[in-house]
């Protein structure tokens, strides 16, 4: 039977102390770059793998992080590639810090979060759980460190990562106004407009839209708010709605994925973009520059959002100093081919 390689074997081969090998494996202590490189080469050559169970017992850590996502919400996980880009950033950051991710879909009203203790999770990243959610109190009762992504929580003691969504809504609408559009519809997602305050991200983008209209001296018209799911299908169905709104010359979709569905629907109805109708999205998904025509959008670094969340959480877990409990990430306007001047009246 092949003998299991341990720290002692690596230390002998590298001609260093066991403590030095341990520091290299755990990324701690003061070890020269040259020694780190040599020890890692020997680890790879010998095929050494740390005994995670022993280490976890010693540190009282499982190295497991729960990624919590409500299963009923605008832009469901399976419908929107945004979430996959976000998960990729979180997973990359977790792997770099020697943590593993467990994905947990929850019913906000009925979830007990018993899995946190059962799996001995070291922390939680919670996506899209807003201020009014029944889950907030239960999450805090778990006693483990939490980071809230896109939650827009008012309590300054909460650790959270958000986007400057209001600025994004403002920039998108200003761009259309500067092109000469005055009747701008908004695809807000499948939410009741009177309940939009429950969805922080959507509310902030909506407020940015309204700010731009107000600055331009234009009235806000709730009839221009289109309520279809945040998905390719939702965007596709929006094209039919627009067929009955002859005075609308531009539309702001709160997600790229809906905007992509809309482009297909408009093309099938024989409407040209941007000659007949301008379209702008939000997110800048990796495929947004490859649509035909390519999608003008508000760009955010989605993977960076995931990395920021994992960094904020693991710093809590490891007892590292945290400079700020709230990380606000920037946005920018990316003008491509789906926006232009409104059509001239015949």
Structure overview:
- The chain is α/β, with parallel strands linked by helices and 346 residues long.
- It folds into three domains: 44 residues, 434 Repressor (Amino-terminal Domain); 127 residues, Response regulator (Rossmann fold, 3-Layer(aba) Sandwich); 136 residues, Rossmann fold (3-Layer(aba) Sandwich), CATH 3.40.50.
- The protein contains twelve helices and twelve strands.
- The strands form two sheets. Strands 2-1-3-4-5-11 form a six-stranded parallel sheet, with helices on one face.
- Strand 1, helix 5 and strand 2 form a beta-alpha-beta unit.
- The protein is elongated and about 85 Å long.
- The mean pLDDT is 89.
Please list the strands of the largest sheet in the order they lie side by side: 2-1-3-4-5-11
Gyration radius over CA? 25 Å
Shape: elongated
Span of the ends, CA to CA:
86 Å
Unreliable residue stretches: none
Q: If classified by CATH, what would the architecture of the largest domain be?
A: 3-Layer(aba) Sandwich
Instruction: Give the mean pLDDT.
Output: 89
CATH class category of the largest domain? Alpha Beta
Tell how many strands the DSSP assignment holds. Answer: 12
CATH fold type of the largest domain: Rossmann fold
Keywords:
single chain; 346 residues; alpha/beta; 434 Repressor (Amino-terminal Domain); Rossmann fold; 3 domains; six-stranded parallel β-sheet; six-stranded mixed β-sheet; 16% strand
Short note summarizing the structure:
With 346 residues, the chain is an alpha/beta fold.
List the helices and strands and how they pair.
Layout: H1 7-14, H2 18-26, H3 33-46, H4 52-59, E1 64-70, H5 81-96, E2 100-106, H6 114-118, E3 123-127, H7 135-141, E4 146-149, E5 160-163, H8 165-179, E6 184-187, H9 200-215, E7 225-226, H10 232-243, E8 250-253, H11 256-268, E9 278-283, E10 296-299, H12 302-318, E11 326-329, E12 332-334
Parallel strand pairs: 1-2, 1-3, 3-4, 4-5, 5-11, 6-7, 6-8, 8-9, 9-10
Antiparallel strand pairs: 10-12
């Amino acid at each position: 039977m092949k003998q299991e390689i341990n720290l002692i074997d690596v230390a002998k081969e590298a001609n260093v102390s066991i403590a030095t090998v341990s520091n290299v494996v755990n990324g701690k202590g003061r070890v020269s770059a040259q020694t780190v490189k040599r020890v890692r080469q020997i680890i790879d050559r010998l095929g050494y793998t740390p005994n995670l169970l022993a280490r976890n017992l010693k540190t009282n850590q499982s190295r497991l992080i729960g990624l919590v996502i409500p299963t009923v919400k605008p832009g469901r996980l399976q419908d929107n590639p945004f979430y996959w880009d976000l998960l990729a950033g979180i997973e990359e950051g977790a792997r770099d810090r020697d943590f593993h991710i467990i994905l947990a879909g929850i019913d906000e009203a009925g979830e007990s979060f018993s899995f946190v203790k059962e799996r001995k999770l070291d922390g939680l990243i919670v996506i899209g759980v807003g201020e009014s959610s029944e889950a907030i109190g239960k999450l805090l009762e778990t006693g483990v460190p939490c980071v809230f992504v896109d939650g827009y929580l008012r309590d300054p003691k909460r650790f959270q990562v958000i986007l400057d969504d209001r600025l994004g809504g403002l920039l998108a609408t200003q761009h259309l106004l500067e092109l000469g559009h005055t009747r701008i519809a908004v695809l807000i997602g499948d939410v009741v407009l009177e309940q939009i305050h429950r969805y922080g991200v959507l509310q902030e983008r909506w407020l940015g839209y309204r700010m731009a209209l107000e600055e331009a001296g234009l009235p806000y018209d709730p009839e221009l708010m289109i309520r279809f799911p945040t998905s390719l299908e939702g965007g596709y169905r929006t094209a039919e709605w627009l067929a009955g709104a002859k005075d609308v010359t531009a539309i702001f979709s709160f997600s790229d994925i809906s905007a992509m569905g809309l482009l297909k629907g408009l093309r099938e109805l024989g409407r040209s973009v941007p000659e007949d109708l301008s379209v702008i999205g939000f997110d800048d998904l990796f495929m947004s520059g490859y649509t035909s025509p390519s999608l003008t959008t508000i760009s955010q670094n989605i993977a960076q959002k995931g990395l920021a969340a994992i960094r904020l959480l693991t710093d809590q877990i490891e007892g590292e100093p945290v400079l700020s409990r709230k990380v606000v990430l920037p946005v920018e306007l990316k003008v491509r081919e789906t926006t232009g001047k409104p059509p001239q009246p015949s």
